[in-house]
User: Fold this.
Amino acid sequence: GENVEQHPSTLSVQEGDSAVIKCTYSDSASNYFPWYKQELGKGPQLIIDIRSNVGEKKDQRIAVTLNKTAKHFSLHITETQPEDSAVYFCAAADTGRRALTFGSGTRLQVQP
Amino acid sequence: DVKVTQSSRYLVKRTGEKVFLECVQDMDHENMFWYRQDPGLGLRLIYFSYDVKMKEKGDIPEGYSVSREKKERFSLILESASTNQTSMYLCASSLVRVNSPLHFGNGTRLTVT
Assistant:
C-alpha cells in the first residue's frame, strides 16, 4: 500500500518568513495530493490540493509543488502570519485507492 | 457549508466497556470515514463506508467495528475498549471516495482507563 513520509515534524519561523513542508510517497500510481490544516480543537481542513498532471499550484500565499519522478511534493507558505500556526498534513492517493493515506503531520509555529 | 458533527467532544470509558462514537453529516455524501489521530503517527484509517450498509476495513480495523444504517450517520464501535484505544477519533465525509475534499468533524478525544 501507499506510505507517506512528512518532514519536519515541527517547524518554527518568524512572522513574515517562508515555511516549507516536504512529503514523499511510495506508490507511483498515486495521482492526488491534498494538504490539510488542523487548528487547535478542530478537525483538519483542506487548504490546497494538486493532481499529477500539474507540477505547481498556487493560492495566494500557499503553493504546492509536485515532482512525480522523485515522488515528492511540498507545501510552501510565504509571508507567514501567526494565524498560520497549526498542524499541517499531507496525503496521497490514486483514484483506485480506497481512501487517502496521510503523513505524520508538521506542527508549524509562527512567532510574532 | 458541509457540517460533520461528532456527538461527543470528550469521552472517558473503562477498560472492557462497549463504546459508541457517533457521526452525522448533512451534505448527503456517499462516503464516510473514521480516522484515528495519534502524535507522530498522523491520521490512520480505521474503517470507511461508501454506501448505506456497506463498509470496508481501513489500515487499523482491529478492535473496531462500524455501522451505517442511514446515509447521514456512521458509527464507530469499540466492542471492548482497551487502554491502547485512547486516542483522538476523527470522522469525515466526502462526495467521492478519493479525489474530493474530506470534511472532518472536530473529533472525539477518548480516554480508556
Summary: Chain B touches chain A through 24 residues (CB under 8 Å). Chain B is about 0% helix and 50% strand. The two ends of chain B are 37 Å apart (CA to CA).
